């Protein structure tokens, strides 16, 4: 048997036998190294994440993504938007409109000829003759369509039969309308064209879809 003093044992004496050895403690500085390394890895990860966020903010990637998302939503809304036809009162039929045909020109026979043609096209004919003094020889265009206040429907229907007219209202009590023939009048609109105009008035075109 012998007495040995292993290095780093603080000078203590240990008895060495054949079946027992002195217990060696693991140096504490290794644990510190491992902890320091783990902390460094975490710090590097945080720095890298922060750098990516800064690049995203200053590089505009986030803004572009949001703009693209808004653009997609707008296109979807635009695609699903269905234009609706504006509500409008149904125009009266020609047979429901009483027309007085009056001649404001020095040419004779225009009122009778025009009244006969309007009657063939389905209008109800009232008075036929010369225009009153307020209009006689004072209508320089094709004619004047004159009716009571609120007679927009009948006047619009009558306007399909003669282009180049102007529409006016007065204080009459009945629902008749006047066609006062003017200086440039030659003839009514061709029947086929008048029918197309009437159809368009009864069924206005569908509004276009908004541009996307």
Describe the structure.
The chain is of the alpha/beta class. It has 5 helices and 7 strands. It has helices at 29-59, 61-80, 110-120, 152-159, 191-202; strands at residues 3-4, 14-15, 98-103, 124-130, 143-148, 165-170, 177-181. The protein has a 5-stranded mixed sheet with strand order 4-3-7-5-6, covered by helices on one side. Strands 1-2 form a two-stranded antiparallel ribbon.
State the major sheet: 5 strands, mixed
Number of strands: 7
Classify the beta-strand content into a percent band. 15-25%
How helical, in percent, are the residues? 25-40%
Structural class: alpha/beta
Roughly how many Å is the radius of gyration?
50 Å
Q: How far apart lie the N and C ends?
A: 101 Å
- Biggest sheet strand order reads 4-3-7-5-6
What's the SSE pattern? Answer: EEHHEHEEHEEH
- Unreliable segments of 5+ consecutive residues: none
Average of the residue pLDDT scores: 79
Number of helices: 5
Net shape: rod-shaped
Give a concise summary.
39% of the residues lie in helices and 16% in strands.
Key structural traits:
single chain, 212 residues, alpha/beta, 5-stranded mixed sheet, two-stranded antiparallel ribbon, 5 helices, 39% helix, rod-shaped
């Amino acid at each position: 048997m012998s007495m040995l003093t292993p290095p780093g044992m603080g000078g203590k004496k240990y008895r060495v036998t054949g079946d027992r050895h002195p217990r060696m403690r693991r140096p504490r500085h290794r644990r510190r190294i491992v902890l320091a390394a783990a902390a460094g890895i975490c710090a590097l990860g945080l720095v890298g994440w922060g750098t990516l966020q800064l690049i995203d903010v200053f590089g505009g990637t986030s803004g572009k993504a949001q703009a693209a998302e808004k653009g997609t939503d707008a296109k979807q809304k635009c695609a699903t938007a269905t234009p609706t036809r504006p509500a409008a009162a149904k125009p009266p039929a020609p047979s429901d409109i009483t027309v007085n045909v009056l001649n404001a020109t020095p040419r004779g026979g225009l009122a009778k000829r025009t009244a006969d043609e309007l009657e063939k096209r389905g209008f109800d004919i009232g008075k036929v003759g010369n225009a009153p003094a307020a209009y006689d020889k004072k209508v320089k265009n094709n004619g004047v369509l004159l009716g009571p206040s609120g007679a927009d429907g009948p006047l619009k229907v009558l306007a399909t039969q003669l282009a180049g007219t102007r529409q006016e209202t007065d204080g009459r009590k009945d629902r008749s309308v006047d066609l006062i023939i003017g200086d440039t009048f030659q003839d009514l609109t061709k029947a086929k064209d008048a029918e197309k105009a009437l159809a368009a008035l009864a069924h206005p075109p569908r509004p276009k879809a908004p541009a996307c």
